[in-house]
Amino acid sequence: MNNLEVIDQVMIKGDLSVLNTQQKVEYYASVCKSVGLNPLTKPLEYIRLNGKEVLYATKGATEQLRSIHSISIKIVARDKIEDVYVVTAEATGKDGRCDSATGAVAITGLKGDSLANAFMKAETKAKRRVTLSICGLNMLDESEVESIPITEKQQTKKVEIKNDTKNISSEFNQ
């Protein structure tokens, strides 16, 4: 595969599986750098989804983004629609710009701790989705990945990322 074909697969089609190990490390580091995330905290992970290998944001990514961009989150609605619990979160940036997103989970047959956990999961989904949205990142978050039935997390391998100014030891998924 030539460079142009690799660029097409990665940038246009969104499939990172065509990258070799070194390219994946460099891509991971570049994405982190472009949005201000610390790659040493493993804010992103690789996953195979719908035949493509993509990056998704972990809990650490959304927490870092809220801190970096001074984003405040407010829960504006909690609703039960049939057998689904839906939470709507609103995010406000330091520039005053607002965005909102929902998180939804099925609650059919749940009771006690399972129901309580589902309520918290819906809130977490809403908060993470609105964080990624207000930051302009078209990326799945960890809570969404868990609810997609056909996903395969990639095995983690320790590698060295060489930076212009220093070496950064980081984990990535191959």
Written account of the structure:
- By secondary structure, the protein is of the alpha+beta class.
- 37% of the residues lie in helices and 33% in strands.
- It is built from 5 helices and 8 strands, in the order ααββαβββααβββ.
- A 3-stranded antiparallel beta sheet has the order 2-1-6.
- A hairpin with a 5-residue loop joins strand 4 and strand 5.
Proportion of beta-strand residues: 25-35%
- N-to-C CA distance: 19 Å
Please give the number of β-strands: 8
The helix content is 25-40%
Mean residue pLDDT: 85
**Uncertain ranges:** 155-159, 163-174
Order of helices and strands: HHEEHEEEHHEEE
Can you tell me the overall shape?
globular
Largest pleated sheet = 3 strands, antiparallel
Structural class: alpha+beta
How many helices? The count is: 5
Spatial strand arrangement across the major sheet: 2-1-6
Radius of gyration: 18 Å
Describe the SSE topology.
Blueprint: H1 3-12, H2 21-35, E1 44-49, E2 52-57, H3 59-68, E3 72-81, E4 84-92, E5 98-106, H4 112-134, H5 142-147, E6 151-153, E7 156-162, E8 167-173
Antiparallel strand pairs: 1-2, 1-6, 3-4, 4-5, 7-8
